[in-house]
Amino acid sequence: MTGPHRAARLWAGPFLCALLAVLAGCAQLVPQTVALRSGWPAGVPEQVEWTGVPFFPQVDYQCGPAALATVLGYSGVKVTPEQLVPEVYLPSRRGSLQLEMLATPRRHGRVSYQLAPRYADLLREVAAGNPVVVLQDVGPMFTQWHYAVVNGFDYGTGSLFLRSGTTVRQEMPFTAFEREWMKSGYWAMVVAPPDRIPVTATEDGWMAAVLAMARAGDAHAATKAYDAALKRWPDNLPAAIGLANQHHARGALADATAVLRAALQRHPQSVIVMNNLAQTLSDQGRHTEALAQIDKASDPQSPFVGEVRATRQLILQRMGQRKAGNR
Description:
Helix content: 40-55%
Strand content: 5-15%
CATH topology of the largest domain: Cathepsin B, Chain A
Order of helices and strands: HHHEHHHEHEEEEHEHHHHHHH
């Protein structure tokens, strides 16, 4: 809906901002909600609710494990809040920090992606089928941090739907939600399968999230994540190198070679790609081809000159051993 009928929906919670002076005050209190009145995100439907998102009633102070179990479960990981408590819950703080919230899904083969602090991005992710973990201050008098999961919204009523605490379907006005959410700096995250890139993800942001997951040690998930990134952004050099490294680590040398050759076509001056390609060729016993490749990487100004020298010495050593073995 467009025009004056749509603009008339103010989502003012229990109070209707009717006068211009009051409207200005509302804009200061809930600026992103007010902006949505005249700038609903393009392509986002006005009503969405994912009823299949699981619900785990939280134990005291353990909203973090409950929220993570919710989004992990929806992404296909079968886990309970109780299983996540040792990973994410800090007894001394009687809660979970954002760092633990982001780190825990990586150990389960999922990519944690922190959203930009924008209402529109939250709505886009929910509309795309990605429930969003949010951090709110729900204390009536003093700060009380709380994690919940947004799994729907309705523009017509100006409401968000959340899995929150012990409430399976909490309905909150856009304004009331923003007042609680903004105190965390609009902190929000999604948990994505490695081959499903969030709709609001940026190239650099997604690659940083994938690298963080790869460091957690799930090689299969990392391979799928790098592959997905390379399909979305074919010129992304870290994605190509990461994918080739994953193939190489599992012994799929032909696959690693194919990825590196494609990367070299797009990045013909990349010393890293030339070095890694030469290494992979040599690992396949193609030493002459590998030597010709590594010689192209000889650049005394490169910060990788040491690695190139070591790779060349390895190739020559292998060539010498082969000659000696053929005598």
